[in-house]
Structure formats: structure tokens, C-alpha cells
Design goal:
By secondary structure, this protein is α+β, with helices and mostly antiparallel strands. The protein has helices spanning 11-29, 110-118, 134-137, 161-175, 178-185, 195-208, 225-233, 244-251, 260-267, and strands spanning 2-3, 6-7, 49-53, 56-62, 74-80, 85-91, 98-104, 152-154, 159-160. Strands 3-4-7-6-5 form a 5-stranded antiparallel sheet, with helices on one face. The longest helix is centred in the first third of the chain and has 19 residues, at 11-29. The chain starts with a strand and ends with a helix. The mean pLDDT is 88.
């Protein structure tokens, strides 16, 4: 919705607006006593977000577009047209505070950078060390998920790691599939960008309960990524597996998701 002549275009601010609206309607029009400490009001929202488009990570956080008259700004830019990676980090003039940034092509360290920008934190002696993407640094492992149960995993629906862990425990080893965890916790049901994190938490929590997570790529493909790649590469009719839709029809089911779409895109 439009607020202050600005359209946010993200689901999380929309939920915040809906929450404010519902409280006002309940309190002022339906007569419910909500016992609120202050009157509900929408005054703006954090526009930080991470999305996974078809085979490409895209993220922005903090103050990623400072005003033209803002003099306390210094930028560091990484532009790799060959690798398809662009990163812009915005610091204060002294280089002691990360104010925001834009990440395209590699956003694996989004959570770390977002936390530094929004919550503050000590930067490396040379802030430029934050600029290089993990692929250029030679890091092969994904950014580790925090074990803190209060860590927000799904910004669209405000779901924490603790919420997801509790859902998995309630469902049990046999019932805790990725689909059920998403349905019950609402994590990963908004933009879908956090679905890989939800899957990782599911794997870790199932192991704690004595179970294990299927190596299937996702709920739409009953194969691991290497198995699906082998099927595509050895298909006798390459024209029957030359698009995501054809591979899904031949080896999977459903409509696909933010896990299998980029995976199949990379296979192709």
C-alpha cells in the first residue's frame, strides 16, 4: 500500500500495515479493548530483503540508496561481469560503520552484512574485506546459521529459528517434512528466499531427534541434485529435457519452487 507517497513493494511491510489496520478496526470500530501501551501506527519499515531469482541471488539491506546531499558516505563496489556478480557496500565516510548495500549474483553472506548494517557491530580493520563474495574468497561452505532461537529466519512472516524448531518437534521425525514445516510455521511461504535456511534447520533439528532429512532436491523432485543432473545428461532425447518445464514434467511433479528452479537452471 502507499504510505507517505511511497510504495514499499514487499510483503513484510504489507503485513505490518495489515497488523496496524486490524488493531485500529478491532479497537475503534468493533469496540475491543486490546490494552495497547500506545496507539497502533505504521511509520515505515525495514526494506532489507533477500530473494532468489532463477539461478541468481539478489539482496539489499540498510541504507542502500543514500540521499544525494548525504555527505557521510563512502562506497566500495565489486563488479564481475564474467562471474555475474555485483556488490556495492555503503559505509560512513570514516569507514567505521556499514550503512547498507546491494548484492547481486552472490548473497551468501547477506545475514552477516544485514546484521552489521542494521544492528551495528565491529567491522574488520580493513572494511574492504567484506566486499569480496564468498566465491571469490574460495569459500565453499554456505554461511552458518545462528543457533540463537531468536534469530529471524523468515522476514516475510517474522518467523524465528526457535519457532521452526518448535514446529519440527511438534510434528515429530515422521511428520516433519519440508512442506509440513513450511505450512505450520509459515516460514518460506512468502517470497521463498529463506527456504534453503528452513531446509537446513530441518536437517539439523531432525538429526537432534535421531532422524535424517531426505536428500531429495525438494518436494517436487525425488532425486538429489547429482542424480537429477545424471538423468538430464544421459537422456537419449536432449530436446525433452532442455527447459525447466520439460524436466519437471519428466522427472518431477507440481509447479517447482525456489530450491529446484535455480538448481535445474544451473544444471541446464
Amino acid at each position: 500500500a502507499l504510505y507517505n507517497n511511497f510504495i514499499y513493494g514487499l510483503i513484510a511491510p504489507g503485513y505490518d500495515m495489515a497488523g496496524v489496520c486490524s488493531k485500529i478496526v478491532a479497537q475503534e470500530h468493533l469496540g475491543y479493548d486490546l490494552d495497547l501501551e500506545e496507539n497502533p501506527a505504521f511509520t515505515g519499515a525495514d526494506l532489507s530483503t533477500k530473494l532468489k531469482l532463477l539461478g541468481c541471488d539478489v539482496a539489499s539491506f540498510g541504507e542502500n540508496q543514500p540521499h544525494a546531499d548525504d555527505v557521510d558516505v563512502s562506497n566500495l563496489v565489486w563488479n564481475d561481469p564474467i562471474g555475474g556478480i555485483y556488490r556495492k557496500l555503503i559505509f560512513n565516510k570514516a569507514g567505521t560503520k556499514l550503512r547498507g548495500g546491494i548484492l547481486v549474483g552472490d548473497a551468501s553472506d547477506y545475514s552477516k552484512l544485514h546484521k552489521l548494517a542494521v544492528q551495528g557491530g565491529e567491522l574488520p580493520e580493513n572494511p574492504a574485506m567484506l566486499l569480496a563474495p564468498s566465491s571469490a574468497r574460495g569459500d565453499v561452505e554456505e554461511e552458518e546459521l545462528s543457533e540463537d532461537p531468536n534469530t529471524q529466519i523468515c522476514s516475510c512472516n517474522d518467523v524465528t529459528r526457535g519457532d521452526i524448531a518448535d514446529t519440527i518437534k511438534e510434528l515429530g521425525v515422521d511428520g516433519a517434512t519440508l512442506k509440513e514445516v513450511k505450512t505450520c510455521s509459515k516460514a518460506g511461504t512468502g517470497c521463498g528466499g529463506c527456504e534453503p535456511d528452513v531446509k537446513m534447520i530441518l536437517k539439523q533439528e531432525l538429526e537432534k531427534l535421531g532422524g535424517s532429512l531426505s536428500n531429495h532436491l525438494c518436494e517436487h523432485f525425488a532425486y538429489s541434485r547429482p542424480e537429477l543432473m545424471a538423468l538430464v545428461r544421459t537422456d537419449a532425447d536432449p530436446s525433452s529435457v532442455d527447459s525447466f518445464e520439460k524436466i519437471l514434467h519428466k522427472h518431477g511433479h507440481g509447479d517447482g519452487c525456489e530450491i529446484c528452479k535455480p538448481a535445474v537452471g544451473s544444471i541446464l
